[in-house]
Specification:
The protein is an all-alpha fold. The chain has one domain. Helices cover about 75% and strands about 0% of the residues. The termini are far apart.
Length: about 270
């Protein structure tokens, strides 16, 4: 009798969390793109424009590292940009989520984690609508394999886990340290520089390459590029590396959020 009641209660909680998540995601998207003509497609236009800028500046110099092909360089830059843009946008927005909703949390009993998670979910939605179809088409054209298209979802799952874990971590830290946004801008900039987005990883000195491995976005970028651009079978090692990075970062973020959330209400 008691196990059955417990399962029913958990299902009810999960349904309530899901319904609340839908409301917050819808609100986030409406507020973000109110009055915007292109809406969620800005998540696609931004990396396309930046790809054009990087290609104009570095394309000729770095094409040699991409089989002497400007097209390959363009595709490599685009895949790197969509990853770093997703990470930067989702985690920076989530950083303010708990503190920004402190007034609401003081009036209504809500699961605190719903706020950073809802911002991740909103960014996932616009990614799926804007960027993912183009990535899938690129993958299908280059690999001519549906297996590669499906495998593309695995490093993207790793990306979502990395972003979710980092969002939970920074949103909870911001409750205690209100100078965090200024420091986090530097963190995002360092991750951007240490990710081989507009430059090939081959030009990085070997003495520095070991430090790049600390970047959790690096295996995600490399795995997506291998799957979508190489035309070969997905590399299991890269996929596992991307997923492992995601699981580790998510575990750290979730653990810290769970340990610190009991102190949030005293500071909001």
């Amino acid at each position: 009798m008691f196990p059955t009641l417990k399962v029913s209660f958990n299902k009810s909680e999960l349904q309530h969390y899901w319904e609340l998540l839908q409301v917050l995601v819808s609100r986030n998207l409406k507020v973000r793109y109110r009055g915007s003509f292109l809406g969620v497609y800005w998540s696609l236009i931004n990396p396309l424009l930046m790809t054009g800028v990087y290609t104009a500046i570095f394309g000729t110099a770095f094409a040699a590292y991409y089989d002497n092909s400007i097209v390959n360089y363009v595709l490599a830059v685009f895949t790197g940009l969509v990853v770093i843009n997703f990470f930067s946008a989702s985690t920076t927005q989530a950083l303010w989520s708990v503190v920004g909703n402190g007034g609401l949390l003081n009036k209504i009993s809500l699961p605190v984690s719903i706020f950073p998670i809802s911002l991740i979910a909103a960014n996932i939605f616009q990614f799926v609508i804007g960027v993912l179809p183009l990535l899938a088409i690129m993958t299908l054209v280059n690999s001519r394999s549906l297996l590669n298209v499906l495998a593309l979802l695995l490093p993207l799952l790793g990306l979502v886990l990395v972003c979710s874990g980092m969002s939970l971590l920074v949103s909870s830290l911001f409750v205690f340290f209100r100078d965090l946004p200024y420091f986090y801008e530097l963190v995002v900039f360092m991750l951007w520089l240490s990710s081989p987005i507009f430059y090939p990883a081959a030009i990085v000195p070997k003495s520095v390459q070991s430090f790049l491995l600390l970047n959790p976005l690096l295996p995600v970028i490399e795995s997506i590029r291998q799957i979508s651009l190489s035309g070969t079978t997905p590399d299991i090692y890269l996929i596992v590396h991307a997923l492992s990075s995601g699981v580790i970062i998510f575990g750290i973020g979730l653990s810290c959020f769970h340990c610190w959330r009991h102190s949030f209400m005293d500071l909001l």
